[in-house]
Amino acid sequence: MSDEANRTAFLEIKGRMIETTGKLKQVQNQMRNKEGEKKRAYLTLEELRQLPDDTNTYKSIGRTFVLEPKSGLMNEQEQKFKDSETAIAALQASKEYIEKQKAEVENNLTELLQQDPGLAQQIMSMTVM
Question: Which of 8, 84, 85, 101 keeps 20 to 30 A from 95, CA to CA?
Fold first, then answer.
């Protein structure tokens, strides 16, 4: 009975580990994307700042370019930069939370394997096959 309960607990912990690892990878990918957006906005702003105020600037809308005042483009890029920073901060908090969940699941798995050394041997024999 205890052996079956431990096996069930192991399968549950394994599922939680897979789930948290997937969530962590997803958040890391989102952070990487937001970092790219932030960098593009920053670089675009730096290039726009170097231009004289009376320069014709164009905004890309799909495959079309529309004449846009320099100030409008700068405001748009500044907003993108700020939005990216906000999103990165939120994703960082989410990442830390998920990392804590993952550490908790790892601790649960370690405790389970320490309680039932036979279960660890069964798991190893299943993975060797």
Answer: 8
For the domain spanning 30-124, the CATH number is: 1.10.287.370
**Cβ burial, residue 7 (10 Å; 0-12/13-18/19+):** middle
Phi, psi angle pair for 53, to nearest 5°: -65, -25
pTM exceeding 0.70: yes
Q: Residue 85 contacts by C-beta under 8 Å, 6 or more apart in sequence?
A: 38
Tokens of 89: 């901060």
Return the closest-CA partner of residue 51 out of 38, 69, 36: 69
CA dihedral 69, 75, 76, 80 (to 10 degrees): 160
Confirm if 88 and 77 have CB atoms less than 8 A apart: no
Domain boundaries, the chain: 30-124
